[in-house]
Sequence to fold (1090 residues):
Amino acid sequence: MDLSAIWTMTSSDLRQRLRDKSVFIFGLAVPLALITVFNFLFAGIGDAESMGPITVGVAIPDGDQVADGLPGVLDGVDNPDISVQDVVPTDAEAAVEDDSIDVAVVVPDGFGATVLTGGQADVEVIVPADEGLEEQVVTAIVLGYVDRVTALSTVASAASSAGFDEAAVQQVVATVRQGTQSPGLTSVVGETSDEQLGVEAYLVAGQTALFMFFTIGFGVISYVEERENGTLPRLQSMPIRPGSIIVAKTLVSFVLGVASTTVLLTAGSMLFGASFGRVGPIAVLVVATVVAVTSLVLLVTKVARTSEQAQIANTIIGLVLGMLGGAFFPVTGSGWLARLADLTPPAAFIRGLGITSGGGGVTDLGGPLLVMAGFLLVAIVAFVAIPSREGQ
Amino acid sequence: MGQVLTIARTALHRFARDRSNWFFVLVLPLFLIVLIGLQFSDTASSGRVTIVGEGALAQDLADSLEDLDLSVTTADDAEAAQTVVARGRADAAVIVDASAEASWAAGDATSVEVLPGSAAAGQASLQAIETGLGSLADARLQQQALVGVGLAADAARDALADVDDAGPTVSVTTVGDSLGEEFAGLGRFDLGAAGQLSLFVFLTSLSGAGFLIDSRRLGVTARELASPMTANQVIVGEVLGRFGIALGQGAYIVVGTAVLFDVDWGDPLATALVLTAFCGVSAAAAILFGAMLDSPNVASGVGVGVGLVLAALGGSMLPLELFPDSLLVVSRATPHHWAYQAYAEIQRRGGAVVDVLPQVGVLVAMIAVLLPLGAWLLKRSTQRAL
Amino acid sequence: MDAVLSCEGLERRFDDLIAVDDVSFAIQAGETYGLLGPNGAGKTTTISMVAGLLEPDAGRAVIMGTTVGPAVVEAKAHIGLVPQDLAIYPDLSARENLRFFGRLQRMPKEALSARIDTVLETVGLTDRADDQTKEYSGGMKRRLNIGIGLLHQPDLLILDEPTVGVDPQSRNAILEAVEALSVEGMAVLYTTHYMEEAERLCDRIGIIDNGRLQAEGTRDELLLITGEVDKVSLQGSGDLRAAASDVAALPAVVSVGREPRSLDLTVRDAPSALADIVSTASAAGMAITDVEVARPDLESVFLHLTGRALRD
Fold:
């Protein structure tokens, strides 16, 4: 390789790119502006890290032995932290509306007696219209409690209808009641790793992944520009190896990509408190992503007739892959679209940053790195297979 | 007037001649609307749980969780489930392995592994899963108790099935206004379509400012000014050209989404009025933009940035109803905000022309400020270029 | 003495089109060789093969004993190419452009700095050396374009239509610079479709059309090819009939045509016969008001060789 010539071309190109304002605009200014605005918009809207404390007003009829276990069950829940207070049934709705309590649970008069004789009764859970997770949890707990009560009443009805006498029915109910004290089906909570980025970090990662395409484009696409400007023939007439020109351009793309990505991620973590984990694995991920995207832009360069065409094709590819890859909002779900999205470099980049932010190392980055390697491979094969547009 | 129209027509013609514009104008908006629409359909449930396992217990648990209004998917193995949860694509996973199935089938006490996601939704799903497990356990208890007093297993099951409807119920009452009601009448693509309409019309106009700078640099503007027409006529021609592009794209998005995705745009007259006013603001902004900047490259970069930022602030990326109050104040400075409000009036509340007049009034006021300012700056910059 | 450049049977096709077909010529040190032909004749393709931008399909170009090719670095070091397009970077200053290309020519650092100053002086850009070249006038850019080709003092300088689109003043400066180079002993390959430039600059000229070298030689040798004679036109009044018959009798005069107010003659070696012709006609009673002499030029050579004009 012609190292000194490659270095001369790379450094001269970098100097020119830096003099051109568009690298700063597309590589730094626009993404930072977008991250800032999105940050104002979306912070506080995304997934909460934990549930907040909640006050539940419960109305239990005096002396109702079936229902009086409910406050204890609610009180015993740790996450969210539930505090229980009494509420008068007629005030319950107003109390929820004026926010003095978060949720009200109203057990009707005569609930216990009705239930135990197999009759119908309705427990009312009153929640605010924009209910949060906490309110959903309360509803689930009430449902669970009522389920258990139902278990008693249905088994009593079943026993009676099967023709058992009162004593046998009581025995069946007692068995079930006893059984509910130690349920036969329980859950063990396992450990999960967390590969999700917080809202701020996600915005930074997404915009970085999107604008990487533009920044990287500035390097390789200048090859086509030089072909148009006439500087390419002059370069080719220089005593340098023919391949070193495109190698230098690729290097420029690579340097610009790594630099802008680093600046954006660093600025993102400093300005918006995003955290991405350890530097080593992040560096590996950044390099792999920049290589994959650069190979894609190289391919565009080979196919494009003019630099304008190359710019536009690059923009289109960047936007489509970026949006699909979740640069603006995550493409979730398990359908084909999510699967397709997973295969894009931006998605793999964002996912990789999720892994590193959860403390993952290079070995945990297998999935994202595989995607990048796949892109590189496809780009190389296509690059070789597609005939060049050079010549007169 | 003929000359003015010639300038406008040329602007349209130059725009249409560039094939790449067709992608940005015609394909990209619909692509984005589809992508957003598919997202909306995905997040309708109160929790997302993925289950690993194919046995009877796994199946019963899935049914029981769906009864609790959770959306349930299946994963191939524990590792896949772990990944799905770690990536936030499910709030929690339940792993029902072969030994759990066997011990449950044998009537023994059984436990299944639950992997809650780290976010609050994971903890909330954990509670729901425990409720679901409890009801399965209760059902078995009932059966065992009946068998314990001498009933045959089949008979016990039948007896329980017969009284299934008995017992207490839980009903949930909501109080206060909810976003759910606000968006209730909207199809899955409707909200995204209205937002993207404003985003793209404005963005396309701004990026068209580069053409204007080109014209000035190439001396075309000077030549136009040298022809027997006033500077104002030239500017009106340029504005009309931008306006035509904006309106064409806007109409395409409205008709395209209505036909392809069944988006309900409400009263056509009212929608047309809002769109027209918004396109006017976009065209005026493009003129202002083209007059202020000198390099087409810089203009296209800044244009994309400004276009996206204004769209985000104006509710094209996040419904205004979810905005914090402080940002809502800033948001009012964007034309997107008023278009959003107007389309909301039309789409959600069946508004007609009269109902959107306030919003249209604000948009017209914006034109009244931007257009003279842009025209003045354009005249100045053209003279500078001479 | 060996030629600096010798081309032997160069041939290059683009798909079905034969752009250059069996072109052979050689250039000695200190010699300026012109490739004259209309646009699309194959000049740039020939130069591209000589400069190592294109691999010939057949034949070869040898520079200082080394066969040129895109990957033959040693051969390229002998060449300075001045492309027809302005091959300079607009975002860099003249000095930065020169330094960049000088490094690629592997010039040592100190020698390069000194040489850059010299070249800046030569092309008259010393005052504006550190301004970005996008601020330059068209003529300044052209001069820098040539300066870069001279920078490493190549054995062969290739100039591809260096005066296209240049104002008359800059054009003259460029032509003078090229004339000075051959004096310094540099071999120059110069393509143009301007006949006057080829006549003024080139020691030898190759006329190229449709990819083939139609003829080659010094200007005078090429003029002989046509076998044409000079045209002399005498305008005036008086006894044109007598004048015509007297002039026709002169040995140098080949033919005479008589118009109402002029005589059109074809003459061998008009400059030496002109005095006789004028005095004979006057003596015969013609009052001459004007004399025009038209000598054959490369234009007529090209017309003779190809059957069409140089500038279509």
In short: Chain C has a mean pLDDT of 87. Chain C has eleven helices and 14 strands. Chain C touches chain A through 35 residues (CB under 8 Å).
